[in-house]
């Protein structure tokens, strides 16, 4: 099945025989509004990832308020961090139906609602539902569109754009930690979470900036970048085949990245939870750091050994073949 002339962004009119009409590249690709998308993604990283890295301050407040074990209390921040990216595949389906802009706006409202409802928590289990699940799902609904939109708006400068947007995580770790510490000191942790919920409503503004590209703009931009042949009709038809193929590849890459990211999140969730239980048993943080460092060392050793093992396997196969 061939793509239509509207899909490939090329005109097969009678005047195509006399001379082809050059397709103007979309000025918003790698420039123009694309930098507003980078700004939006940068702010999302500050508000989402920065806030999650500052949860240690609230964790201490929850320990004093509810008098629960550190292992149980650590589940609140663990759930929020884990659910943010674990729900990625489901958010991807939501994006396919509603688009990135609507998904991010709904996620911003849900995230703010989770923060505000958590201000009225009476126990840790209440926080599991309001902060861990509600705010976590809302964070995922904003974070994934912020990453996807940067990839859509950038072709040549995609690496630079992704790098600039993800620096928001570092800035957020400093800013949100200082903000939450100040709010908890001046107003108490409940009012601090209420205020943070109001601040999180800015995620809706970030979502509103995620103006979608029309399919014609995306395909025409790929056409301009890839087509160099003199035969316009053959060039367009071959491009439609390449577009179908490239779309398949692009649809697989986010899934692989999402799976890898989910594994990293699960590891971080397990580390936080295990660290809390170890402290409950030993009443010291030292063993948690020792065990975490040991696990990293074991991983490094396996990475160093793996190339040696891979080199030995071809040698063994070649030796067996020679004997046969």
Tell me the number of helical segments per DSSP (H or I, 4 or more residues long): 14
Mean pLDDT: 76
Instruction: Please report which band the strand proportion falls in: under 5%, 5-15%, 15-25%, 25-35%, 35-45% or over 45%.
Output: under 5%
Helix percentage: over 70%
One letter per element, helices H and strands E, the order comes to HHHHHHHHHHHHHH
| Structural class label | mainly alpha
Q: C-alpha Rg, in Å?
A: 25 Å
Show unreliable segments: 1-20, 227-266
**Terminal-residue CA separation:** 49 Å
Globular, elongated, flat, extended or rod-shaped: what is the shape? flat
What multimeric state do the chains show? Answer: single chain
How many strand segments?
0
The major β-sheet equals: none
Word description of this protein:
With 324 residues, the chain is an all-alpha fold. Helices cover 82% and strands 0% of the residues. It has 14 helices and no strands. It has helices at residues 5-8, 15-18, 34-53, 55-66, 70-86, 88-98, 100-118, 124-153, 158-187, 189-200, 202-208, 215-226, 232-282, 286-323. α9 runs antiparallel to α10 (189-200). The longest helix is centred in the C-terminal third of the chain and has 51 residues, at 232-282. The chain is flat, with a radius of gyration of 25 Å. The two termini are 49 Å apart. Mean pLDDT is 76; it is low at 1-20 and 227-266.
In short:
By secondary structure, the protein is mostly helical.
């Amino acid at each position: 099945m061939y793509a239509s002339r509207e899909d490939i962004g090329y005109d097969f009119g009678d005047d195509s025989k006399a001379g082809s009409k050059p397709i103007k590249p979309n000025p918003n690709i790698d420039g123009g509004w694309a930098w507003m998308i980078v700004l939006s993604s940068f702010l999302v990283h500050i508000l989402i990832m920065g806030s999650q890295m500052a949860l240690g301050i609230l964790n201490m407040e929850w320990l004093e308020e509810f008098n629960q074990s550190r292992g149980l209390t650590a589940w609140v921040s663990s759930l929020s961090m884990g659910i943010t990216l674990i729900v990625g595949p489901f958010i991807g389906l939501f994006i396919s139906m509603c688009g990135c802009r609507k998904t991010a706006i709904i996620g911003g409202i849900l995230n703010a609602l989770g923060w505000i409802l958590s201000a009225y928590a009476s126990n840790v289990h209440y926080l599991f539902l309001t902060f861990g699940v509600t705010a976590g799902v809302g964070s995922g609904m904003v974070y994934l569109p912020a990453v996807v939109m940067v990839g859509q708006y950038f072709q040549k400068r995609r690496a630079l754009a992704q790098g600039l947007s993800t620096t928001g995580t570092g800035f957020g770790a400093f800013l949100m930690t200082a903000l939450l510490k100040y709010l908890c000191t001046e107003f108490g942790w409940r009012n601090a979470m209420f205020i943070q919920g109001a601040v999180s409503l800015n995620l809706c503004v970030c979502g509103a900036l995620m103006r979608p590209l029309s399919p014609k703009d995306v395909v025409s931009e790929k056409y301009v970048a890839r087509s160099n042949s003199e035969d316009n009709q053959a060039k367009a038809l071959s491009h439609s085949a390449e577009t179908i193929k490239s779309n398949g590849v692009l649809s697989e890459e986010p899934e692989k990245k999402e799976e890898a990211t989910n594994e990293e999140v699960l590891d971080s969730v397990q580390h936080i939870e295990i660290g809390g239980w170890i402290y409950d048993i030993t009443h010291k943080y030292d063993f948690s750091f020792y065990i975490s460092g040991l696990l990293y060392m074991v991983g490094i050793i396996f990475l160093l050994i793996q190339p040696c093992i891979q080199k030995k396997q071809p040698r063994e196969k070649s030796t067996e073949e020679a004997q046969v």
